[in-house]
């Protein structure tokens, strides 16, 4: 019996139906008066944001409509200097933050702190406009809108997204100087579905991935970096001092950024495979259950599973593939590593580490490549096609 697809798998499969967005971060120089004014605006905005977060946590809902009905009138009375549209933006911004927190911390849901470390303001189409490189932003009640000349958009961004439309701007103030960081979010037209082959992709802990056509992405430094950070974490946790905790926090950010960069590079190469119309992954949302204590899984294996960022690589590849018109399919992962792709015989003894040798027909192959072929075949079966078809016709 096939396992029901997880919500994460269904979301990734539906990425091609969503309007994609791209973000561009640019620096912005402010005058002393502008910095003071937007600092005040950010303070009021974040106080509204914090009130909304507290309400969402207390009522266990992320409905911005319900929050608007319950909070809008009171917030407008409390913060008369803040234009009404910023109140609406803060309510929606807080709803998204709580939703993201609950998704990333399922065991600590509805506990997001109602404060931000950095002064932040989100502008939408009602509070900003962009003409060429001239950006106009709304300000406090009774003050004029401010105009800024942005740095030139990089040529590669213009070439890749010529028909973009500005959707939102996020302003983050630097408390140490008269600088700000703008994140420009653009809506990108949907890519037309393309016809091509079905590619099965097997994700691993040593090779980041291996596909059904023999392509792979190996980065030995990843394992070395993870082992080094694991050793440093263990040493600092044994110390338990306040400075050790600060060091752990900084170290966690560096490791996360390193792995994120590697995953982006691997996803870009995978999504750029020529002639591909469908890309198939295993639905690994339930694999963490294998790492529960009390099972036969050893501690070292549990740690490796818990630190394996397969979800991030799938996420990055899914949206990059969707931007190229490639369909993403998630399949049941059961026995893909134990099944012989030549005869279909399933036995866990078929696989011995990196090698696969079928006990029935004698078929030999790289274990990850054999698994990628099984993933491809399941995707073809789920799409209602035969393995001999070379092209995929999208409905």
From TrEMBL:
| GO MF assignments | DNA binding
Q: What keywords would UniProt list here? A: DNA-binding
**Alphabetized InterPro entries for the sequence:** Cas12f1-like_TNB (IPR010095), RNA-guided_DNA_endo/Transpos (IPR051399)
Q: Which domain of life is it from?
A: Bacteria
The segment(s) forming the Cas12f1-like TNB domain are: 310-375
Q: Which NCBIfam families match?
A: guided_TnpB, IS200/IS605 family accessory protein TnpB-like domain
Protein name (record): IS200/IS605 family element transposase accessory protein TnpB
């Amino acid at each position: 019996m096939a396992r029901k697809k997880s919500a994460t798998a269904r979301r990734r499969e539906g990425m091609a139906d969503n309007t994609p967005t791209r973000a561009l971060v640019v620096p912005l120089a402010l005058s002393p008066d502008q910095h003071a004014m937007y600092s005040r605006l950010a303070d009021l905005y974040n106080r509204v944001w914090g009130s909304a977060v507290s309400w969402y946590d207390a009522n266990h809902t992320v409905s911005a409509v319900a929050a608007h009905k319950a909070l809008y009138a009171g917030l407008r009375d409390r913060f008369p200097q803040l234009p009404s549209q910023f109140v609406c933006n803060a309510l929606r911004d807080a709803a998204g933050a709580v939703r993201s927190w609950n998704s990333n911390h399922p065991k600590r849901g509805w506990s997001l702190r109602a404060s931000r470390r950095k002064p932040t303001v989100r502008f939408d189409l009602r509070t900003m406009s962009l003409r060429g490189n001239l950006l106009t932003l709304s300000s406090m009640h009774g003050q004029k809108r401010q105009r800024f000349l942005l740095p030139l958009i990089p040529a590669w961004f213009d070439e890749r997204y010529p028909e973009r439309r500005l959707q939102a701007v996020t302003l983050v103030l630097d408390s140490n100087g008269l600088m700000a960081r703008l994140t420009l979010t653009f809506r990108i037209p949907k890519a037309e579905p393309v016809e091509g082959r079905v590619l099965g992709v097997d994700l691993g802990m040593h090779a980041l991935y291996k596909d059904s056509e023999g392509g792979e992405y190996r980065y030995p430094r990843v394992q070395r970096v993870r082992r080094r950070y694991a050793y440093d974490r263990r040493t600092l946790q044994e110390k338990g001092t306040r400075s050790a905790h600060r060091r752990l926090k900084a170290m966690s950010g560096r490791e996360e950024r390193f792995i994120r960069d590697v995953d982006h590079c691997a996803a870009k190469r995978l999504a750029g495979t020529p002639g591909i119309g469908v890309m198939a992954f295993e639905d690994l949302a339930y694999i963490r259950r294998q790492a529960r204590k009390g099972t036969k899984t050893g501690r070292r294996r549990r740690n490796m599973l818990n630190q394996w960022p397969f979800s991030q690589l799938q996420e990055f590849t899914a949206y990059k593939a969707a931007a190229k018109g490639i369909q993403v399919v998630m399949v049941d992962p059961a026995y893909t590593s134990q099944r012989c792709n030549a005869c279909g015989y399933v036995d866990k003894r078929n696989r011995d580490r990196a090698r696969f040798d079928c006990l029935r027909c004698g078929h030999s192959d790289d274990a990850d490549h054999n698994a990628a072929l099984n993933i491809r075949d399941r995707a073809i079966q789920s799409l209602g096609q035969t393995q001999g078809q070379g092209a995929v016709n999208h409905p």
